[in-house]
Amino acid sequence: MEAERPRSLKIAPVATPGKRNLPLAPTVRAVDAVRPIYAVWEITLACDLACRHCGSRAGKARPDELSTEECLDLVRQLAELGVKEVSLIGGEAYLRDDWVQVIEAIRRHGMLANLTTGGRGMTLERARAAYAAGLRDASVSLDGLEATHDRLRGVPGAFRTALDAMENLRTAGVIVNNNTQINRLTMPDLPELLDLIIERGSRAWQIQLTIPMGRVVDEPDVLLQPYDLLDLFPMIPRLKERADRAGLFIWRGNSLGYFGPYESLIASWMPDQHANGCGAGRTMMGIEADGIIKGCPSLPTEKWSAGNIRDASLKDIWERGGPIRYTRDRTENDLWGFCRSCYYADTCRAGCTWMTDTLLGKPGNNPFCHHRALEMQKAGKRERVERVEEASGKPFDAGRFRLVVEDLTEASAPDAAARGATT
Predict the structure, then answer these.
(1) pLDDT for 233-267, tens place per residue?
(2) Does the pLDDT of residue 366 top 80, yes or no?
(3) pLDDT for the residue numbered 416
(4) pLDDT tens, position by position, 310-365
(5) Of 34, 74, 385, 388, which one has the greatest count of Cβ atoms within 10 A?
(6) With 60 as the cut, is the pLDDT of residue 393 above it?
């Protein structure tokens, strides 16, 4: 029986105003000449769902979100910087009155525009307006079958409205994709969910791990454990085989890795057919609705804000913002724990910065790795994470977890945590 859910969840806090006048480095280095090809833009934090696994605790708009004029100027700067594709997210993007105007501007400047949506309010009228503005593909979030999805999305009927959104978008001419977070609730649903996605005619399916940030920190039992990857990864090739036959493209988010025996199959769409570390601040950027620029949209605001477009140009922030330079400067010497001595250290560099920073308080040591779980298993051990500090309840907050190493022979014992070594 599922444990009773906490009744004190912080559903929709009001975000603090975006940081201003952040320091920029005095010079631009050769490595900073790299240009982003992809931007993920949270155009509002307002949302019509209350997802239990939402890292941003979306619900209420930020108090200082960009005006329409500021958004349109930012679109211009994105194009001038060389961005090729812009994904609009929220919150829920369509809750901004000018969301269609932003799509039109992105297309007018020669960039691709797409949308990620929970779909609760994606009416046919909205879908047709977005298509007319230039939207050509959208990803509708489906986190499990109906009971699981509604449980996680926090609103009864959310599953049905997501399916309606898919139909409305398709009717309007928009290519429909899906995205799914994998956790202990959704993982059992994946095979049947794939059947549904194929049946509904979707073109692509992104799968990624739920990250320990935001509301899910209030319910840590929802998260996978590192050793759960030993069951998850053998499932993925079976899913991919069925998807390939149906013409559905499966691609993984950066949190789902790395370098196990299925790596080249899972990453077959990538140039090297394997992960190449975190792309934050190298090939992608994140934008918050108040003008904050980050290397990745999911990184915690407080620590990873590189600058605000109300104070500096996008180009200056991209080239000279300290936090956005992190992955450009990262070397093996910045890794720690298992990742420091891993065979793949120089290529992977601990994978997803978002996962490692929110989980353990600093990047560089990632237990959510298939290769690592297999190596631990060979040594007769497994890793488990447990929450030791609750999250604050603010948008993009993180709690704190500790990493427990257990002997496999003891892992099923009730007092395994007491006997495990911690790092």
Answers:
(1) 999 999 999 999 999 999 988 899 889 998 888 88
(2) yes
(3) 41
(4) 999 999 999 999 999 999 999 999 999 999 999 999 999 999 999 999 999 999 99
(5) 74
(6) yes
In residues, how long is the chain? 423
